[in-house]
Amino acid sequence: MDSHMQETIKTTLAEIKSKTNISTQALEHALIITYRLLDSKLESDYNLCLSSICHIANLKHTDRMVQQLLHDCIIKSRVFLYNNLLSTTTPSYSPEFSAQDSILQNFYTSSKTNTTLTKPQKEVFDAFQRERRLIVSAPTSFGKTRIIREIISANDYKRIALIMPTVSLLSEQYQDIKSNIEGFTVSKSSKVKIKPDEKYILVLTPERMSAFLDENPEFAVDFFVMDEIYKTDYKLNDDRYKVFSDILYRLAKQSTHFYLIGPYISDFSSRFRERFNAKFIRFDLEIVQKDYYKLDGIKNNGHHTIEDGNIRITKNKYTNFSRIISQPSVDGKFLVYRYRKQYVEDTAKSLADSKNEKEHNRDLVDYLANSISHDWDLINCIKRGIGFHHGGMPRHIQDLIVDEFNDNSKTGLDYLFCTTSLTEGINSAAKNVVIYDKNMGTGDTLGTLDRKNIEGRAGRFMQHFIGRIFYLETDDREDQDSVIEIEYLDKTKPDIETLLQLDHHDIPHEQIDLHNSFLDRVSNLNIPDSLIRSNRFVSAEGQIRLIQYLRSTNKNYTIEDQYIKKEIQSEILSIIFDFLFTEKDKGKSFNNEVGKSILIQLTNYYVYHKPPFKLMLTSNTVKGQRKTENARIRYVFDLFTKYFEFTWPKYIKAFENLYNFTAIEKGRSPIHLDMLVAQLEYGTTKPHEIILRDTGLPNEIIGKISDFYKECKTFEDVQRVTQEQRRAISKGIHTIESKVIDKYL
């Protein structure tokens, strides 16, 4: 019987998608069958029913019986907010609500937060209340983060950590918690003063959480959340997975409750689940349904029906893209994936060249022209309703562009071109996702997890019933399982840097010999393993070679009052580059002696002259490295976000530890490089400005508002001053800068 119902619904969906002139009677019949199939316990049947509801709701049908049946299916599906969206999209929608309908909805509505959960969300919440250590895989638009405040409201936690992968998600979660949860000190800065009897919610990136735990080793968390948990997987082989997995380990071993969430995960390390007694739940259903169009110019050339129109697909990808977005019935905004930063910008520029100027956010254009460059292609793009976004751009500019894309007014952006930066939890208003390339930045083919993450951005709950996904290149390989594996538990030979961070009793039995042989080796070299361990995830071999070099040289660095002479700083940076930089750190720009010299020269210029972005952009050295303005902008963005703020500070801290160890051996005075680290990592050495920088504010804005905050010692002080002086602060800055302050503070 179920198979007959499934076929009936699938047939109706196929007719709807092909734009067949389907009868009212057929829709009514499909909804009756949908109502019956909702009794099934199978997730695949439930997802099919949601597809039926979404596709029929998307028709905006005015027939009263169709509307009533649709309403009854929505109530039975327990995704009550579909009704709210229908009321917005279909003004004539006015079904009868029974008393039973209201009772059911109230059952799914929190008495504390007044949030109405979907059926799957309530299943997650109930599972957490039972298990207390829960890992959840669910698609985008499921509402995984919405459950966080329900968990906090329902439990008596006192010290909570919410670990978010990006400043954008961090700020969004911070605002949500701040607005809906009372009784806690909520901080998005690691610079927060801890009082024994107060309750805290820390909303931090993994890097900032690591710094906080190092400074507050006695702080015991009783509940933590990690979003985008797939970033702990060692197979990602990026610069951050070690930090993510380290924070997961440090928090989980505190015998705390946790809620780990991420999209499209097939399974999570069985050894981790066993070690920490965690439950894994996987959902594959889509609250916002998807329609897929394979329009590969090689494999699928010819005519294709899309909505009410017909387009011809050729071997030219850009022509195919232009035809898709020119189709009048393909409504909504477009998120376009390209696999390299330059391709993102070039394709956005090509589209902008074909469009006329439209109403746009003139304040944003003015701000970008004055703070970055009048000749930046992004400015011309914005004027034509187009934006681009990639990981090399400063976070506050990325956020401003996403905000413009999510703006549904006539000045908002219609197109947003992105790299995989769009997969990192960007909540966008895109109805359409175009997968322009089947590759990723390394040139390899997109993996299943990355591809699904991109696809998941099509359609946003409470804005769309249906999202569309267009493939301009396709990969015929079958989907692979996305099993998240933790390095120290699941990798055959984990890096020694990872094993060193573990408590001895947590080192897997099969890794004990590897760990102990390293300890014996450094012991024979008279190097404490605690020294190597203190420099988290800096190459152990590089550290050993650097110690041996420092022992063999008679160099004695004299630094007075933390002021470093330029020639000494250059020598220190050179040594760090030679001994601690990996090939990935050097990249293509700085992978030889000339590149090394240029990087050190630009770093010195930044430290000693503190140039704003625009001045750095116009330096002769930068002009000599890149021919075009846009290439120079990408180059300087990379300098700031990768080298100044991340790579150099990590290695300078390690150098200081290693140099001082050898200096003490020789009876010499230690050196202190804290000011250099702060100047690079934060762009300032002033404590109150470091707190402001910790929130995500850029240095250009901080420089204008610094005097208001000079007495601030903690993030709470910053919040208080912001509230008290908001009007005065806004008077001296650009309107866009006021918007950034409102978002981050």
From TrEMBL:
It comes from Pseudomonas alkylphenolica. The lineage of its organism: Bacteria, Pseudomonadati, Pseudomonadota, Gammaproteobacteria, Pseudomonadales. Residues 339-515 form the Helicase C-terminal domain. One of its GO terms (molecular function) is nucleic acid binding. It comes from the Bacteria. InterPro entries: DEAD/DEAH_box_helicase_dom, Hel308_SKI2-like, Helicase_ATP-bd, Helicase_C-like, P-loop_NTPase. The keyword Zinc does not apply. Pfam families: DEAD (PF00270), Helicase_C (PF00271). SUPFAM superfamilies: P-loop containing nucleoside triphosphate hydrolases. This is DEAD/DEAH box helicase. Residues 125-245 form the Helicase ATP-binding domain. Keywords: ATP-binding, Helicase, Hydrolase, Nucleotide-binding. The keyword Secreted does not apply.
